[in-house]
Amino acid sequence: MNNKDISHRQAVTTMLLLLMLAVVSITAATAAWFSIASNTRLGSMGVNLTSGVSLRFDLDEHTEFDDYVKSLSFEDIADRILRDTGTDIRETPIEPVTTYDFEYYTYEDGTPADPAAGSYIEFVLHFMAQRDMFVHLTDDSGKNGEAGTILSSDTPGLVSSMRVSFTADQDTVVFVPDLGDTSYYDNAVRFMGLEVSEATGLNDNNTLFFIEEGVDMPVTVRIWIEGTDEDCTNDLIGSEYELSMRFEGSDENNASIEK
Predict the structure, then answer these.
(1) Which one in 11, 45, 72, 85 has a CA-CA gap of 20 to 30 Å to 245?
(2) How confident is the model at residue 7 (pLDDT cuts 50, 70, 90)?
(3) First vs last Cα of the chain: how many Å apart?
(4) How many beta carbons lie within 10 A of that of residue 200, not counting itself?
(5) Which is it for the CA torsion 227, 232, 237, 239, positive or negative?
């Protein structure tokens, strides 16, 4: 066998190895998708939103601060989505989806997922503040015992596969529950977490957006289960989960305005 034949065989062998590695990589990347049934859905959920006294929100825009509220329940949000879309999220459990731009979502087969059909949850929160402030997602409890940001479930793996995004002024922050007290950018999107064992405190990692005094700030909130997460498996079918989110304002030095 001459050197030319040997080189040719080596090139073919290399190409085959690269092809096998590519197949393995694709299989690993999509393992979560392949391990779930096409009709996988999550069971009931609960959502509760609270804020501090200097920061309020509502499902509608208002002109006066006093017209906004300090808390919203799952029933409030479900009733609003039902009115706007005709879908009752109390009766329509969400399904695994994924997204590349955190605006449009798809199922495993690439077909569009519609929040109006209940595949994931989408609603707009209108914020207003009594002074200029940076708004944080916090796991610290409120003065009156309001729960901080907590996502909980009796089903292992559910919490880590859930995502919540906040889009304000075309900037998006994605809350990944098990990311810890860190944050990072992927293109123009920032991913953040909160410490599980103890209150994180207000810092740059958990800042969501800046709001001016007396100006309505619409924020699109999306809640979904990430189908490409390794914990998104058949074990999640019918799972129940609870989500509390608390928002708090700070000055430019991350000092709480409420304390």
Answers:
(1) 85
(2) low
(3) 82
(4) 22
(5) negative
* CA 250 – CA 55 distance, rounded (Å): 10
Could you say which DSSP state residue 33 is in?
H
Rounded to the nearest integer, the mean pLDDT of the chain is 83
CA dihedral 52, 54, 57, 63 (to 10 degrees): 170
Contact 216, 126 (CB under 8 A): yes
The closest alpha carbon to 134, from 60, 198, 73, 54, belongs to 54
3-state SS record for 65-83: HHHCECEEEHHHHHHHHHH
Tokens of 196: 């599980």
Q: What is the rounded distance in angstroms from the CA atom of residue 248 to the CA atom of residue 139? A: 10
In the beta sheet, which residues pair with residue 224?
163
**DSSP reduced 3-state for 11:** helix
Instruction: Indicate whether 23 pLDDT > 50.
Output: no
Least confident of 33-47, 116-130, 135-149: 33-47
Distance CA 156, CA 154 (A): 6
Contact 175, 165 (CB under 8 A): yes
The token pair that represents 217 in the structure block: 């700030």
Residues facing residue 223 across a β-bridge: 121, 164
For the entire predicted model, the pTM comes to: 0.83
What's the farthest any 2 CA atoms get from each other in the chain? 88
Residue 232: is it exposed, middle or buried by C-beta count within 10 angstroms (0-12/13-18/19+)? buried
